[in-house]
Amino acid sequence: MKSVKRGARGDLVRKLQRRLIHHGYALKVDGDFGPTTERFVKRFQHDHGLKVDGKVGARSWRALDQKNESEPVAAPPRPPVGMGGHHVSESHLIRRLKEFGGFGYALEGAAYPYPLGGVPGLKLATKPGAAARVNNCCTFVEALLVKAWSDSADGFRWNKRRHGQFMIASTADYFSPITAVVEAGMGVEQEDPDMPPAPWTLVQGWRRKWGGGHTFLVLDIDGTRILTLESNSYYGLNGPGFRHVGGLDDFDGFRPSKWKSSRKLWDWKRFRKSYPHMRLARLKVRDIQWMAGQAAGDETAGTPRFVWSKNSKLFHLSTCSLAKRIASRNRATGTPSSKLRPHKCVKRG
Predict the structure, then answer these.
(1) Which residues pair with 307 in a beta bridge?
(2) Are 92 and 61 found together in one domain?
C-alpha cells in the first residue's frame, strides 16, 4: 500500500479515514489529509505501539487492516480498540446538558440537578428554593458523566468513595477524578499527556503543586484548537459552558455551532503550559456525532443569543429584534465596541 501523509488527497486518503472510523476514531471522510486526519493517525499509532510520526506507511496500513477484515469498511464508529467495560452513546451525555440550564459557578455550596445513586446527602437544586443553582468544575463533570453512565450502562455503579475521588477529598491522590473513571470502567488513562486528546477526554490539571486545580472535558478539536466543556468563572463563563465560546444557556440546544470561528480558543500546547501537572482519561463514548455533524450549512444552529451592554451585564436575547434594539441603544450612547467587555469572573480555573 502506498504511503500517505499530511497534504495528500484522494481515494487513498478516504480509505484511510474509513479505516480510522472503523477502529473507533471520530472523523469525517472527505479525502483530505489535513491536521485533523493527521491527529487521529498519530492517536492510532500511539494506541497501537507504532512510531508516532503521522505518516501512514506499511506498518500503519497493516495495523489498520489487521482487525475485523470481514466487517464492512464503512461500518459505524465502534468503541476504540482495547476499551472494554462500560460504554455510553454520546447522545446520553448531550441529553443531560439541559439539566444544567441556569446554573452559575460557585466553588463552595455546589448543588446537583438530580440525585446520584449510591451517594446520599448531596445538595440538590431540583426545585426553586431547594438550593442555589450553582456548581463547580468537579461537581458539574461528575453529575454529567455519572448520570449518563447510570442511565445507559448495564451494571454500572457509583458510590460514596467514587464521589470522594471526584471531589479530590484525599491528598493521597491529586488526580483522583481520573482514577475514579478508570476504576469505574468509564475510561482509559492516556499515557502521554503531551499528546492532543481525543473528543470526550477527561482532564485533571494543576497550575502548580497542588493549587489551581481544574477538572474539565475536551469535547472536540479543530486542527490544533480545543473546545472544552467545563464549569468555570473565567474565560467568559459563569457556570457550565465552553471556554472562550459561551455558557450552555447562550446557545439554542446547548450546541455552539460557530465555535470554530473563535480566535481565543487554546491549542493543546497552551493547555499543557497552563496545567503542567496533568493526567487524562479517554472516556468510553461511542457514536460521536454531536460536533462532527456540524456541516457548513448548519451554522445557524446554536447561534449565541447575547450581546454585551455598556455596563458589562450579559443580556440573553430571544429575538433578533431585541438584539437590534440593544445594539441601537449602545450606538446611541456612543459606546465603542472595544469597551463592550464581558463580566469579570471571580476565580480562574
Answers:
(1) 315
(2) no
Q: Is the peptide bond before 210 cis (omega within 30 degrees of 0)?
A: yes
- 52 and 100: one domain? no
281 in any annotated domain: yes
Side chain identity at residue 17, one-letter code? Q
108 shares its domain with 37: no
Identity of the residue numbered 268: W
* Its pTM surpasses 0.70: no
Asked if residue 129 is part of any domain, the answer here is yes
Q: For the segment 158-198, what is each residue's pLDDT rounded down to a tens digit? A: 999 999 999 999 888 999 999 999 999 999 999 889 999 99
pLDDT, tens digit, 9 for 90 and up, residues 233-271? 999 999 999 999 999 988 877 778 778 888 899 999 999
Radius of gyration (C-alpha) of the chain in whole angstroms: 21
In three state form, how does the secondary structure of 208-244 look? ECCEEEEEEEEEEEECCEEEEEEEECCCCCCEEEECC
| 219 and 250 in a common domain | yes
Structural domains of the chain, count: 3
